[in-house]
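Can't attach files on this board, so I'm pasting raw text. These are the components:
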Amino acid sequence: MALESLHGVERYQHKWNEVQEEAALPEIGNFTNQYQLMMPPLPKAECQVGEYLVDETGRKMKLNYAHGTTTLGFKFKGGAVLAVDSRATSGQYIGSGNVRKIIEISPYLLGTMAGGAADCTYWNRVLAKQCRIYELRNRERISVAAASKLLANMVYQYKGYGLSMGVMVAGWDKKGAGLYYVDSDGNRMPGNVFSVGSGSLYAYGVLDSGYRWDMTDEEAYELGRRAIYHATHRDAYSGGIVRVYHIKEGGWVRISEQDSKDLHYAYAEGKTTTQ
Amino acid sequence: MAVEMAMEPDYMRDPRKHHFSPYMENGGTSIAIAGDDFVMIASDTRLTRGFNILSRNQEKVLRLTPHTMMASSGCWADVLTLSKVLQDRITMYSHEHNESMPTTAVAQMLSTMLYWRRFFPYYVANILAGLDEQGKGVVYHYDPVGHMEQLNFSATGASVAQIQPLLDNQVAALNMKGATPPKMTKDLARQLIHDAFISAAERDINTGDGIIIHTITKEGKTEEMVKLRRD
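---
Top answer:
Structure tokens for the assembled complex are below.
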């Protein structure tokens, strides 16, 4: 053998278990088909999703995804108003104080984010793509009912897999302002007033007591803003910047972005003067 | 003798408790700070497993393109695979388009790539730092399943809870009455990064040994190795 290598003679080496030298590029399914996500390599994957997350000692591993928190939307005579906070928490850690929880699907359609941040942004983005394709194919804008149905059907495939998403799809179409609530359990319902997230209970209290159909635009913005502010004040998982958007005939408009801290001091002064 | 012919093989029966875990926590912390024409990204060089130190000089910042770098920590096995897959896709892009992939495109691709594994996630904490098409520094922060946020500065990894508040205070002067954020220069960024890691190393066992600070500018990139406590 040494003689062979000295003379540069190459012996034929049979490769048992022929291994490809060039490893194939790993397939990332959702580049081509956004609806397709990788299933974990486990039998009965849908029952076990989440169960295998244990570390080497058998303790459950804290895989904390960013979670979104208080959003609200309501219809009134001047269109629809959406108001959101901007805090994202991963477990007890505040991952971000400035998340954009209103996702701009198109110039006349908005989606909100509550629950898992990655889930909401990903599926809202896929929805934006589908809405645009609808527009190109049908040469007219998609209705809010149809857009929300698309989203609901997308996530229904993954019902039970642990997606966490509570989204409001709001926009302007032929029927006027539209507001639908869609979540990862498969719910989809139209409505006039919704609030979603851990702080929604607090927001509902303020929203329900101040809501009237024939509010002026300014009253509507202030109602949404106050409701979110009160939720940020009492719910630990809500906070940051309070953003208000208005949906009307020409599309959506960004109304205000105020820090809930500043709102707190402004309202505190306001409270004493009205008494 | 009971006849078991109708019984399924054990791997097809109901899930059982098992102690194999595909994940491991290997520690590591990263910081990135962006300026008007530069971006600085740094990572510590310690790799741990429980109370053991696996390595004192593990580079954790990956150079993706001439103007983008990524710092990853968490489960080292996942970091290696994610880096490889990402690098492959970036190379493919440069072959198809005859130019290197812009930072914003890399950022979005990474987000989609992480979401692909939504049900069996990459247990990785990522920060992407680079220069955008206008040459301005930009930092992207990710959660393990791909939620992406564009920022001017960020920390991630084991000591994120110790470092992020320090950066919020010093870089953005957040929630401070009457304070204005300083103009971000390379010297200030480097000093902040160094100080942040020193403080984190004092209070977190998973951080220490050393840091490697990378700076990306239009002209190119530079690298600096700084020693930290090895205890």
